[in-house]
């Protein structure tokens, strides 16, 4: 089972609990391919009644049909504002700005009734590692204020960023929860890059990915790897993909680790198409499993 909870994450969680007292609204960034698995249940418990907006990033890698369904789910089932985002192109950031500006206006009106001057809206951005928090901050600010990386744990400290005359934003490190007792959720996070590559078995993760894709549409694998047919077991399918991609060792044996790396990276880069690994219809079950972690 995949386990990863570095010391800096435990510290970040303690700090975040105190910082929540300072902000007016929380922006939680999740991965559109795994909207519920990529939400930290520990953080949601801490947020509690705080005003919140959910941003589903990497919309370009997820199935558009399910993107719309997930937005409806968050807006109707959780009574939260929700926005789809492509942090590479900036698509969706204007909608998020509109929500933040409206929240600012509401707070400014309340302060005016009390005879007080308006102040910047204080927002906090949270999420698990590698979902695109830093990229979103740079989009909101219109400049490269924060460091962006394609591996978990790039943002280590907390920093306030003035993104406009109305909005001040607190960036926080990505925080995972202490343990993954649900295997499917753990592998979804590994496959989408939330967990460092060094702490999980690429080959086992590839088998999981193949099974996830088979449950969605087996044509995805047939087309992507020019396969004539699919074997019954992911173990054998990975071998066929390895042969097609020339992942061979001495004696003609398939280099399974190399083949696993190819299919996982193809999924992460969108080369297998737009794939969503979780459906809103499964939300109730997924939510219980996530809270049980």
UniProtKB/TrEMBL annotation:
Binding sites annotated in the UniProt record for GTP: 57-60, 86-87, 174
GO cellular component, one term: cytoplasm
Annotated localization: Cytoplasm
Family the UniProt entry places it in: Belongs to the TRAFAC class YlqF/YawG GTPase family. MTG1 subfamily.
Domain CP-type G per the UniProt entry, residue ranges: 10-178
Main location: cytoplasm
Keywords: Cytoplasm, GTP-binding, Nucleotide-binding
Top-level taxon in the UniProt lineage: Bacteria
GO molecular function: GTP binding; GTPase activity
UniProt cross-references to InterPro entries, sorted A to Z: G_CP_dom, GTP-bd, GTP-bd_ortho_bundle_sf, GTP-bd_ribosome_bgen, GTPase_MTG1, P-loop_NTPase
UniProt-recorded name of the protein: Ribosome biogenesis GTPase A
Described purpose of this protein according to its UniProt entry: Required for a late step of 50S ribosomal subunit assembly. Has GTPase activity.
């Amino acid at each position: 089972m995949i386990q990863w909870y570095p010391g800096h994450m435990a510290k970040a969680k303690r700090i975040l609990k105190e910082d929540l007292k300072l902000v007016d609204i929380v922006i939680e960034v999740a991965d559109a391919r795994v909207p519920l698995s990529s939400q930290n249940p520990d953080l949601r418990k801490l947020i509690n009644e705080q005003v919140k907006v959910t941003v589903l990033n990497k919309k370009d890698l997820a199935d558009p049909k399910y993107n719309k369904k997930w937005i409806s789910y968050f807006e109707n089932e959780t009574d939260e504002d929700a926005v789809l985002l492509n942090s590479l192109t900036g698509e969706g950031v204007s909608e998020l700005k509109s929500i933040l500006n409206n929240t600012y206006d509401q707070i400014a009106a309340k302060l005016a009734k009390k005879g007080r001057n308006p102040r910047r809206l204080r927002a906090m951005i949270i999420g698990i590692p590698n979902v695109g928090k830093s990229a979103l901050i740079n989009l909101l600010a219109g400049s490269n204020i924060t460091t962006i990386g394609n591996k978990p744990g790039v943002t280590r400290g907390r920093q306030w960023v003035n993104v406009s005359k109305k909005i001040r934003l607190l960036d926080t490190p990505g925080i995972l929860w202490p343990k993954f007792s649900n295997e499917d959720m753990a592998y979804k996070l590994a496959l989408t890059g939330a967990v460092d590559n060094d702490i999980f078995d690429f080959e086992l993760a590839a088998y999981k990915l193949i099974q996830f894709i088979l449950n969605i549409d087996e044509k995805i694998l047939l087309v992507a790897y020019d396969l004539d047919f699919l074997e019954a077991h992911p173990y054998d399918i990975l071998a066929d993909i390895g042969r097609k991609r020339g992942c061979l060792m001495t004696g003609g044996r398939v280099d399974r680790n190399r083949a696993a790396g190819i299919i996982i990276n193809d999924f992460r880069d969108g080369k297998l198409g737009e794939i969503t690994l979780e459906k809103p219809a499964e939300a109730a079950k997924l939510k219980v499993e996530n809270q049980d972690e």
